[in-house]
Automatic annotation (TrEMBL):
InterPro entries: GH (IPR017853), GH_1_N_CS (IPR033132), Glyco_hydro_1 (IPR001360), Glyco_hydro_1_AS (IPR018120), Glyco_hydro_1_beta-glucosidase (IPR017736)
Reaction catalyzed: Hydrolysis of terminal, non-reducing beta-D-glucosyl residues with release of beta-D-glucose
The protein's Enzyme Commission number: 3.2.1.21
Keyword Nucleus listed: no
Region of interest (Disordered), ranges: 1-21
Alphabetical list of PROSITE patterns matching this protein: GLYCOSYL_HYDROL_F1_1, GLYCOSYL_HYDROL_F1_2
Enzyme class: hydrolase
Catalytic-site annotation from UniProt: 380 (nucleophile)
Name recorded for this polypeptide: Beta-glucosidase
A Pfam short name: Glyco_hydro_1
Originating organism: Streptomyces rubiginosohelvolus
UniProt keyword Hydrolase, yes or no: yes
Amino acid sequence: MTAVDEARPATAPGARPETGTVLRFPTGFRWGTATAAYQIEGGAAEDGRTPSIWDTFSRTPGKVRNGDTGDIAADHLHRMPDDVRLMKDLGVTDYRFSVSWPRVQPTGRGPAVERGLDFYRRLVDELLGAGIRPVATLYHWDLPQELEDAGGWPERDTAHRFAEYAGLVAGALGDRVSTWTTLNEPWCAAFLGYGNGVHAPGRTSDLAALRAAHHLNLAHGAGARVLRDRLPDTAEISLTLNLHALRPLSDTEADRDAVRRIDAVANRIFLDPVFHGRLPEDLVADTTAVTDWSFVKDGDLEVTSTPIDSLGINYYSPSVVSSGTSESPSPWAGAEQHVAFTPAAGPRTAMDWPVDADGLYELLTRLRDEFPSVPVLVTENGAAYDDYADPEGEVHDPERVAYLDGHLEAVHRAIEDGVDVRGYFLWSLLDNFEWAYGYSKRFGIVHVDFASQRRTVKDSARWYAEVIGRGGLERA
């Protein structure tokens, strides 16, 4: 018996008899799960792949817990067919994966490496054969190191390089992949990578962070235009943002202004260029000590506002904001001297993040009110807990089940209140390399023993399979 055989759900999706009330989701609702290339693939030096900024960052002493790297990760590069079989057994309808830029275009310039593209061709074929819709994300933070050496995201040429790369992947997979996401969480790439340096490439500069944010917006728009040109008319093109659910600590004017400042640099710095073709005026005013925004050139905002078909949002927890001073270095360019953060009350995950599903509902209804014509996908939502396999080889994770149940109920409530939510992608399929935390945090619904690479389905995966099977949440 293989590790995957042992990992299969004990019951088929939906096998448990329904009792009581079921909070049903719309017909055709997309039940998915999600991963990212550097976090699961491994094979860091195979098939012509060259280092990304995360390969370099993870090898820099003190940057990643325990000195962990993504060299092997969850070994998905070699175990992909078994992992797809796991998804099929769980009953998911969609799988959101990311393409490794340095595996496809190692220097960030020039032709594609066919061996790199071949892995994604095989992945897509496996998914389609299993009846699972592939959802491709082009950028989940693994910038080729050579492009960082040339200046990285603070330089506008990186946006043009991204558009070229988007065309290469679309040319290889566009006949079989119908849903495309340009960027995942550009806020993290810009402000954690270039602002406070806790993510790759580890720079600490307010100016670099703001330049990176703009050039990521430009890359999104330019990439979307290339996708539109290369893909069938039926293709769905999207962007995924980790929008921040913000609450003032008090109802004072100072705390409300703190929320406004963070909303500008966390949310509207992306929403306004993408949907309105403009920069937020208050953001520009707040950051005059950092930049005059002269790196925004004529025509840029027309490109950034290239129409998209849906918006993905990633949500884990809310933030409580007040007047004060942030720690230095800070990711909040232009707001550091005006804003502080207070831990929210209530239970917390292993990441020390508060559990609060109302924040997801708040974000979804905000999008309904501000962008009513744009369909929404919840492209990441999940929780890390200190999971382990018991002596019988089982992984019981009731806290994660409760977290997921509460957040799916919030999605259902938003749909009932008129939000056009088309799908939910649980983060994550597998335990994986959790960025600066290395392998110390587990988000997966499938446990991975990183020494043996054995997969074990957790209770949360069985629960999710049942939710998918019945098309909703069971209530007594």
